[in-house]
Design goal:
By secondary structure, this protein is α+β, with helices and mostly antiparallel strands. The protein folds into three domains: 114 residues, Butyryl-Coa Dehydrogenase, subunit A, domain 1 (Orthogonal Bundle), CATH 1.10.540.10; 125 residues, Butyryl-CoA Dehydrogenase, subunit A, domain 2; 144 residues, Butyryl-CoA Dehydrogenase, subunit A, domain 3. The protein has twelve helices and nine strands. The strands form three sheets. A four-stranded antiparallel sheet has the order 2-3-7-6, with helices on one face. A three-stranded mixed sheet has the order 1-4-5. Strands 8-9 form a two-stranded antiparallel ribbon. The chain is globular. The two termini are 41 Å apart. Belongs to the acyl-CoA dehydrogenase family. It comes from Nesterenkonia halobia.
Amino acid sequence: MTTAHTPATSTPTTDLMEIESQLSAEEVSGRDRVADFVDRRIRPHIARWYEDAVLPTELFSEMAQLGLFGMHLTGYGCGGRSATEYGLAMQELEAGDSGIRTVVSVQGSLAMSAIHKHGSEPQKQRWLPPMAAGEIIGCFGLTEPTAGSDPGGMATVAWREGDEWVLRGQKRWIGLASIADVAIIWAKVPFADSEAAVEGEHRARADSAGDVVRGFIVSTDTPGFGAAPIEGKLSMRASLQCDIDLDNVRVPADSILPQSPGLRGPFDCLSEARYGIAWGAMGAARDSIEAALAYATERRQFDRPLTGYQLTQKKLTDMTLELTKGQLLSLQMGRMKDAGTLQSHMISVGKLNNCRTAIDICREARTILGGNGITGQHAPLRHANNLESVRTYEGTDEVHTLIIGKRLTGESAFR
């Protein structure tokens, strides 16, 4: 899987198993277009963006032109690319920075995916084309201050009043919310109100309290909607996560996603995001190895390059072995997703393994850089810091461990 530092016609240094040979010419071409974008537009500036805690929104139009928004969705101006092509693109973007890759995940895998999977035809026609073009930016409001890993415990509510829905509550850690034009907000709705809004056979299931989780399309300029960036982050600094406050926000009756089946609605979207994360984490890991290898080749100690020492070679070997396994896992996931055989527990395998592996690789790569590795001039520690967030969002290690544990044992250990 080529790196932005290596011509596409040659085998990259880290590709020990010739994974490159398993990719089609179309997959390679699409990946290399994204790698070129990262080389030109992200690498020269990312250290400054990260230090200044700036999300480079000026990149959004170019990302849309590359077809990255809704890349793996079909119709409505979306790219219609394969899951494998999408995964390769996420790997290249995260080789630049996790925060930049998150923009594509929030826009395409979460906000656009929610409308594409669960929206009505008029909703799809209204929102998806301008979102694919980058003319409208979306966000996805699920997580709350006291409901992270347990979204069923959300406190945000919505109820019907005449021809309107009224939403009240708070959301936290919502990507892009303060600059978004539209928000997908998940709220608990009285079962009777929910049933009246459901299309066809798409019936939502009530929880023990008699409420059901439903999704709403909310324009962010609606009175009562407020979003503020979370400050003081030590991770994902070239990104934007926000608090949302919903103070009796009134939206039209047709703002509800008519085909969202309870909690399965947001979970379907989370699966899309988790899949992209599994690929993306390998981009951060690969970039860290390549940075360490380049540094060790040039850096001399005791009259020889660092690459000439056994301990350095062991570190590089161990890291690249783990990278290779993670990339092969991602590729297998992509092929299965394209074939329609990928199951939800498999996505948990990829997300858990690759995030855990990537953060270990980035930390180890930093050690090869010595003290210089803690500066913004070098990528590995920035990647490691970002991965602290990536490892946590869209399901913590603990959540994915229990998903896999349930698959292995048949027993749910969440409660």
